[in-house]
Design brief:
By secondary structure, the chain is α+β, with helices and mostly antiparallel strands. The chain has six helices and eight strands, in the order βαββαββββαααβα. Strand 5 and strand 6 form a beta hairpin. It is elongated, with a radius of gyration of 22 Å. The chain starts with a strand and ends with a helix. About 5% of the residues have low confidence.
Length: about 190
């Protein structure tokens, strides 16, 4: 189910609170779009993904917290892909095997119905912390560069593991990726 409501009587400081509370109440996802009404007033359009049994509770919360006069209920289908979280050990080294950073990064692996890997995405906060650490170490690199490099290698690593191992062995493996700083700087 998708709930939708438009609200023109709250300010932007109130929006994060409403999102957090909806998530605490069990919403699967919440999106808010700033908009302009027909009279030129600012408004927010809320989209809340939830189950049918959550509709009444979440709708009542929206009325209490935002003053909305109603909530649209949109019945929809969701084509969901299989996905899992897997960990990679990652090391960034200088040319002399001096580790600048070593740690684990979680990756969300999305698969098609046949089990083939379609997408591998690093957890944002972990990549952000890594990029900050590398900048603090004096490397002139961006979050974008670090993310692209790590995800490109992670896709290859996870696909290689699947080619080399049987299903029963895959779950016990924590693959390792080593990067030299030269690789990062050449991107």
């Amino acid at each position: 189910m998708l709930l939708m409501t438009n609200v023109d009587n709250i300010n932007c400081d109130h929006v994060p609170y409403v999102i957090e509370e909806l998530m605490k109440k069990g919403a699967r996802n919440v999106h808010v779009i700033p908009s302009i009404t027909k009279k030129g007033r600012n408004e927010y359009i809320f989209f809340i993904d939830c189950t049918k049994d959550q509709v009444e509770d979440l709708a009542e919360f929206l009325v209490v917290e935002t003053g909305t006069l109603g909530v649209r209920i949109i019945e929809n289908e969701h084509y969901e892909f299989e996905h899992e979280i897997k960990k990679l050990e990652v090391t960034f080294e200088r040319g002399n095997n001096d580790a600048l950073w070593h740690g684990s990064i979680n990756f969300k692996i999305v698969r098609n119905r046949s089990g083939e890997i379609l997408s591998v995405r690093a957890e944002y906060e972990e990549i952000k912390a890594l990029a900050k650490h590398l900048r603090d170490m004096g490397l002139n690199t961006s979050l974008y560069e670090v993310k692209e490099m790590v995800e490109r290698c992670a896709v290859k690593k996870f696909k290689d593991i699947e080619l080399k191992h049987e299903e029963s062995e895959k779950d016990n493996i924590v693959p390792i990726i080593n990067f030299s700083i030269e690789e990062l700087l050449c991107m």
